[in-house]
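User: Predict structure, ligand aspartic acid.
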Amino acid sequence: MKRVFIDELHQYIEKPVLIKGWVSVRRDHGKLVFFDIRDVSGHVQTVLLPSHKDLKSSAEEIRSEWVVEIEGLVHARPEKLVNKDEPNGDIEIEATSLTVINPSLTPPFDLRGDGMDINEELRLKHRHLDLRRPRMLRNMRAQAMVGKFVREYLTARRFTEVSTPILTKTTPEGARDFLVPARKVPGSFYALPQSPQQYKQLLMVAGIERYFQLARCFRDEDPRADRAYGEFTQLDIEMSFVEQEDILVLAEGLFTDMVEALFPEKHISEKPWPRLTHRDAVVKYGTDKPDLRKNKEDPNELAFAWTLDFPLFTEQSEDDFFHGSGKATFAPSHHMFTSPHPEDVTLLDTDPTLVRGLQHDMVLNGFEVGGGSIRIHDAKIQKKVFDLIGFNETQKAEFNHMLDAFSYGVPPHGGIAPGIDRFLMALLGEQSVREVIAFPMTGNGRLATMGVPTSASFEQLQELGIIAIKKNKELPNAI
Ligand code: ASP
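Assistant: Predicted complex:
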């Protein structure tokens, strides 16, 4: 018999079916034994009637999380037994055959409920079990549905999906890089990309015109509720021959249509999305990412907004890792490729603090879910910005590939990169971005399921020409 998914059972009322999945709950009422069976699509109650004596004995040993297959008849439940809160609360399966595919140890924590009261480290260590929760499976599916929607939407609008390198060069997004030793060039390193920023701009020079990528980005910065440690996924977009308005319209259309198509239970508070200048947002709300929900108790309200007209520069702080010399007073408020507002270009020479940048931040329910800008496409202005942020000649030389590329006919261009994990967190009302990532790192940078990072053998280090110095006892493989 062909296996039926649990969310298809309504098509089989009073018909025989075969279902496969995990036992989520077993209830023994003496004569009657009930199993709640769960698969990726949902769960359903199965009942073993006393008339099937043979089943009763094999059912004795079965416990939660055992993998089973059940053949049975789908019955509509009598009116008084209907549970309206459950998708399958109006049916149940009368088992006619029951086979254990695999037993399970008792899981280290309860897999029913939302799991929020369980120690997060423990949940992450056994993530393969934690992900069995319907809430977590929903989150994984939401991520996949968003990816599919984005691909179809953008591809239908002349966008080309391009993959860019993971082993690459340091990128100036303001965080620390992850370095990977280059065996073939001893003493040198690749950096994992903090974003594909430079590659997407080079793709505009190449004439791709409309690019996107569901890009993995790597940043060695402290985790927060809305930022996972280590890596995250961005919907990276870049467009040529556009003005800021075109980027806002594209992104607003994409996210509005996506929410309406995939998450119809959600409602967007205001359309078109409100637009705020940076100054007005800070004066009125005390933040550049205000939460504009009308009713914060409503889990289905989505308050999107744009914040515009950011200052191009902020004061440089000790936390800036964007490779400036540390002597300059300015740091880019977005990144060093953001174009100054055309009306403010002359202020670069007189009062850079007054220069506005063509930056746009996408805000959702008080989270910055994406940022982008129109880029500088004039090598002279780019050099001026490098000077203002304190680049010395060696540092400038690191970006010669960009200046060089820009001397071969670069179109005006700009883009945006909404963070997919952060968007899903806000959309699904999750408390932490880790709830929407399959295998996130713990706060101290460990992948608990696999015990990553691991030490390297002496031979591996030797081959790479690397000596590990023991600073504290926790360093693996130190000498
Ligand atoms: N690369 C930028 C970031 O990661 C986004 C952009 O400017 O498109 O924030």
